[in-house]
Automatic annotation (TrEMBL):
This is 1-deoxy-D-xylulose-5-phosphate synthase. GO terms for biological process: isopentenyl diphosphate biosynthetic process, methylerythritol 4-phosphate pathway; terpenoid biosynthetic process; thiamine biosynthetic process. The lineage of its organism: Bacteria, Pseudomonadati, Thermodesulfobacteriota, Desulfomonilia, Desulfomonilales. It comes from the Bacteria. The gene is dxs. PANTHER family: 1-D-DEOXYXYLULOSE 5-PHOSPHATE SYNTHASE-RELATED, 1-DEOXY-D-XYLULOSE-5-PHOSPHATE SYNTHASE, CHLOROPLASTIC. Keywords: Isoprene biosynthesis, Magnesium, Metal-binding, Thiamine biosynthesis, Thiamine pyrophosphate, Transferase. Pathway: Metabolic intermediate biosynthesis; 1-deoxy-D-xylulose 5-phosphate biosynthesis; 1-deoxy-D-xylulose 5-phosphate from D-glyceraldehyde 3-phosphate and pyruvate: step 1/1.
Amino acid sequence: MNGNIMNKNELILAGIESPADVQDLSLEALKTLSDEIRETIIRTVAQRGGHLASSLGVVELTVALLKIFSPPKDRIVFDVGHQAYAYKILTGRRDAFSTLRTKGGISGFPKREESPYDFFDVGHAGNAISVAAGLAQARCFNGDDHKVIAVVGDGSLTCGVSYEGLNQAGAAEKDLIIILNDNEMSISPNVGAMAAYLNRIMTGQIVTRFRAEVKNILKNVMGEPIYSLAKQFEDALKGFITPGKLFEDLGFKYVGPIDGHQVKHLVETFKNIKRFREPVLVHAITCKGKGYCQAEQNPSRFHGVGPFDIETGKVHSQPRPPSYTTVFGKALVKLASKDPKIVAITAAMEYGTGLAEFARLFPRRFFDVGIAEQHGIVFAAGLASEGYHPVVAIYSTFIQRGYDHLIHDVCMQNFPVVFAMDRAGIVGEDGPTHHGAFDIAFARSIPNLTVMAPADEDQLSDMLATALTLNSPVSIRYARADGLGVPIKKEPELIPVGKGRMMTEGEDLLIIAIGSMVDPAVQAADLLAKKGISAGVLDARFIKPLDEDLILEKSRAAGKVLVVEEGILAGGFGSAILELFSDKGLGGGSAVRMGISDAFVEHGTRAELLADLGLTPEGISAQAVSMLKDRPESKLRRFSSIRL
Ligand SMILES: Cc1ncc(C[n+]2csc(CCOP(=O)(O)OP(=O)(O)O)c2C)c(N)n1
Ligand SMILES: CC(=O)[C@@H](O)[C@H](O)COP(=O)(O)O
Ligand SMILES: [Mg+2]
């Protein structure tokens, strides 16, 4: 299919009310249905944004699964879940699909509360095999006989947890089906030894090479007559050496590789394996982006994409200041060009973390470790122990995977590893699995770790330079957002560790803000000034160590303190301030905290969700007004903020 998506009538899809309807369709109808689903996905994602290429790659797979298996009796779980759009469309969410990823609309990932056909909430990679193992065990306890199927991408076979799942499931000998959806892509081309192994299976090299080796041995060691005899048994030999021997050795019946776009082939295969009573792995070869030429040609760009023009594939965009991610990538390249000890590590997010330019310029110092956050952190610790200066760029939500390693392998030994925690705070449409809500709370409790958050993009560049001068671990958190458009200094300035700064002075109230909340706090002070309220704004810059002297001095002077952060309140930055007040005798009751309360934040645009949380200039100013409501009117009108 070219860039032209015809607005055909979706005749078959229109008749699908539940997945049971798919089972009545002929093979021909299933093919047409696949085309119709593809069009629906392309049209919807072009409007809403989303995970296009991955979802297009599994349309036939999904249709064939639903032809043979019967959810909700049979359980189908998806790894990551970003590829489940066809499944959503066929399991009762066809009409709601137009609300994909919008606030109050359907989620971009499987979600139990959204549908009885979704069995597990997901968003992070690598857990599907373990989930399936748990579901199979529960089935066994309950004496049920349904099927359990995990759809897993090749990228997810770079996750350590996938092997933990295989390890148990293979030995448990329980009836369980893994569909390995191999498109040779993670977000970028897939990496590592397993990816190379799968590629050798796919290209037939494993069988061919084995046969060539056996032939040589027979010829050289046994002589020509035995070789001729063996040749007659070549077919038997071929059958004996299965291409997925690695999986067979782990206890799985390997089936494949099969073409993941041939509905007939898929349906026949699924019909056959449905009878098996043992762990099975079906290796399906698919094309990421299948059916939309722009995505087939550039699957990385269309992995997760904003609204775009279907004809051209161009993403709709306005001129905007560079994002924090872009500024980070550029700043790191600049620093690395002067310091050969700097190395950069990503866990399968080269583009998302802004490291593409670094990878191009310093290929020997760039490491994509796969979706292996835990390994990436320990790998960095190993490098740091030998005098290198690793910068580990991982999204806040994914670094949760590496928490033990952050403590045990990096901070306990005080290694100078810099963690660039991108996507810290509210990320928007990806929702609760992806919001970076917890990193302040979990980072600030770790000894030796310095924790910073820039208020603008220039400060991010300064903080990165500062972090690389410290001989200890550092975390820098920044949001999935554009910068403020401030100019970035030619040469970064080092920031004294643990020093905050005043943005505005004020006398009625002090707003202490961190990172992405500094600018809204300053804007709030402007709104408050218009109401006759004089609010000071303190940019803490460091979550740890805190600028205790400045915070205490200004808080004492103001009397009323409002702390604002884009992170979970429990144990967060505001908690750090309250601890300080309590420890230094200021009285904890005098500070009000704003941030993410004790709940998972759903999906929506970043702006909508921040507004819901009150983390906007208007929300902060409203909170300040309510804190001051008992003050005499005359006092409030005496002061105005003085912008520094
Ligand atoms: C723990 C974790 N790290 C990183 C990601 C970001 N991520 C989402 S999908 C993806 C690639 C998945 O590749 P694969 O499983 O092969 O699926 P495909 O998109 O190729 O179908 C990555 C790295 C994630 N979701 N979870
Ligand atoms: C599914 C997944 O985990 C990623 O594709 C993620 O959605 C990327 O997020 P960004 O768009 O913020 O890079
Ligand atoms: Mg893949």
